[in-house]
Amino acid sequence: MGMSVTISAAAEQDAEQIFKLQYLCFQSEAALYGNYRIDPLVQSLDSVRAEVVNDCVFVARLGDEVVGSVRGRITDDGAASIGKLCVHPRLQGHGIGARLLRAAESALAEERGAKKFRLHTGHRSEGSLRLYRKVGYETVGTAEGSDGVPMIVLEKLAGTYAATA
Known about the structure:
By secondary structure, the chain is of the alpha+beta class. The chain has helices spanning 15-25, 27-33, 39-42, 45-54, 96-112, 126-134; strands spanning 5-9, 56-62, 65-74, 80-87, 116-122, 138-144, 150-157.
């Protein structure tokens, strides 16, 4: 009958689907800020490919279709930077984003030694903020994105998983 959404590490051949999904998913964020030059909308396919090859990237699949993705990498200060979490609009609200976050956090901690996770989200992105707080992230500051969007910086320690995730 129905198919299950599976979470797995991204493969290089997933880059084009991730690129298209990211473009679709971040339209609503761009509308929130009246800025269609936000980073996820102007990123090149080659740049997405490089991230899939070099960073910790996970995808959610429904059959052969990539319906969600997230990326993470270790930063110079040893924290894991997590970004560009997106889930296809028709599948949002079903826990896929939390599952993708959990997969990235686990891999970044276990395989790359992350002790802390950090992410940024737009200050008006209430849905994203709700998800991040639900899975244990706390606001630690603010920043301005390279696209000019005011961002909220959130962090949590590795090994801290919310029971609701």
